[in-house]
Amino acid sequence: MNILGIIPARYGSTRFEGKPLALINGKMMIQRVYEQSKKADRLLDVVVATDDQRIFDAVTAFGGKAVMTSSSHKSGTDRCREVVEKIGSGFDAVINIQGDEPYINPLQINQIAELISDEDTQIASLCKPIHDLDELLSHNAVKVVIDKNGKALYFSRYTIPFQRNENDTSKWMDLRTYYRHVGIYAYKSLVLKEISALPQSGLELSESLEQLRWLENGYSVRMGVTEFESYSVDVPDDIKKIESVFKNC
Questions:
Q1: Distance, CA of 163 to CA of 159 (rounded, Å)
Q2: Which DSSP symbol is given to 249?
Q3: What is the DSSP letter of 182?
Q4: Which pTM value belongs to this model?
Q5: 217 within 8 A of 201, measured Cβ to Cβ
Q6: Residue 110 in 3-state DSSP?
Q7: Predicted confidence (pLDDT) per residue in 143-177, tens digit
């Protein structure tokens, strides 16, 4: 299966303007994401999708591929769809790679590529077991519940499932495995075009989670479980934390 890796990258961000061009251990973040993605041997090609000339120029300067996209897109999914419309005619599937994870593990990209290669998979994503109570209870950590076939039943910022018979939340992880959603997606190319045309749904607006739009419209999301930790940059202070973790890389 021919799979295209797309890294959406916006310059404008309310919490960190110009984030893709920020230096992480001496290299621009977008360059680190691109180089890590190129190490995934299941991808036929990798391209950065951006709405800013500065990012486009920076990517081409270090030898990467970039495509200019509209500045009106509301999500990375929409930006991926535009790239597919422009250059993706020869690709069966697309992986939407987060542009703010400078040290994304290529094995995670290969894992989700394997999932989307299944002919019955429409959309794929990853999740990681939760071992920390603060993460379990945090509304910033999106949780996912999976059925016996590995498909997502629901995503929520709330801790799901709720343990009705145990009031002590510190014991909840002893009762079952909870999963945090890892924000990387793969879509069959035709499915990407379909879901991009869907209007926002009630569940999506309630939780501010785009993937709920897909579930609410009857699409299935195949989940893979990963043990690799992901480190994203949301605000400038996150850079020092990540540099400390990967100081020898």
A1: 9
A2: -
A3: E
A4: 0.93
A5: yes
A6: helix
A7: 999 999 999 999 999 999 999 999 999 999 999 99
CA separation for the pair 138, 130 (Å, rounded): 11
Q: Report the Cα 68 to chain-centroid distance in Å.
A: 20
CB–CB of 203/213 below 8 Å? yes
Q: How far apart are CA 100 and CA 29, in angstroms?
A: 7
Length of the chain: 249
Read off φ and ψ for residue 181, nearest 5 degrees: -75, 135
Q: Do 101 and 230 touch, CB atoms closer than 8 A? A: yes
Cα(118)–Cα(43) distance, rounded to whole angstroms? 15
DSSP assigned state of 199 = P
Max Cα distance, the chain (Å): 58
Partner residues linked to 151 by β-bridges: 222
* Token code pair at residue 98: 């987060």
Using only C-alpha atoms, the chain has a radius of gyration, in whole angstroms, of: 18
Condensed to tens digits (0 to 9), the pLDDT of residues 52-93 reads 999 999 999 999 999 999 888 878 899 999 999 999 789 999
For β-strands 27-28 and 23-24, DSSP reports them as antiparallel
Structure tokens at 6: 């797309």
Of 32, 221, 242, 193, nearest to 126 by C-alpha is 221
